Amino acid sequence: MNPKSSSKDIFGLALESFYTRQDKTPIKVHNEDFYDDEIPVEYLFRSYQEMPKLEQIALDLCEGKILDVGCCAGSHSLELKARGLEVLPIDISPISIKVCYKRGLKKAKCLDFFELNNEKFDTILLLMNGIGIAKSIDNLNFFFENLKSLMHPNSQVLLDSSDLIFLHENELTETDNYYGQMTYKISYKKSISDSFQWLYLDFNLLNKKASKRGFLCELVFEDEHFGFLAKLKLN
């Protein structure tokens, strides 16, 4: 989660404070329908050994030239670089990219995934609910077409998401909007972002939508918290 929702650059401020001063003030996540949540900023600097199994599996599957979308503090890219792989970390947060650069990721770029073109990658990595950048069900076709523009016939996309059905129990009706379309604000200390949309998908819906856009969708891993890792290939 690192939305282009405000010039305040909430994630960047938190990353820089932790990196330079070991300030562990968390990022707060606000949703009007649920209690506030927190993202421990030190978690964004985790090593491979500290990552959940889902992320470890995703990194182990990476190959060739890799695009790390929403790289944040660059933890995934640093692990891939240490393995001798070619990786391009991108993020829309300019301060986050400065932190990546200081951590040794000299190729990191402040760049929106939807503005990237004229390049092809063997692996496109979208972790920490990377599909959230699609924002809504209606935007999925645009998201998938952008993926295609960055792929060659043998490319793979590795992405994770979570099925949020557990948050609603028996409250949903057929007339409700899809339960994975969320609206958030995030804050750090006295800075707070504008509202932004973020999308969570269950695997069955991801498979259905991706198949209609010409992808093969494989369920790679499921964790105990309703999260899953999926692999997309061109059909």
TrEMBL record:
GO BP: methylation
Q: Which CDD domains match?
A: AdoMet_MTases
Q: What is this protein called?
A: Methyltransferase domain-containing protein
GO terms (molecular function) for this protein are:
methyltransferase activity
Q: Which domain of life is it from?
A: Bacteria
Positions of the Methyltransferase domain: 65-187
What Pfam family is a match, any one?
Answer: Methyltransf_31
Q: Which UniProt keywords apply?
A: Methyltransferase, Transferase
Ranges annotated as spanning the membrane: none
Organism expressing this protein natively: Psychroflexus lacisalsi
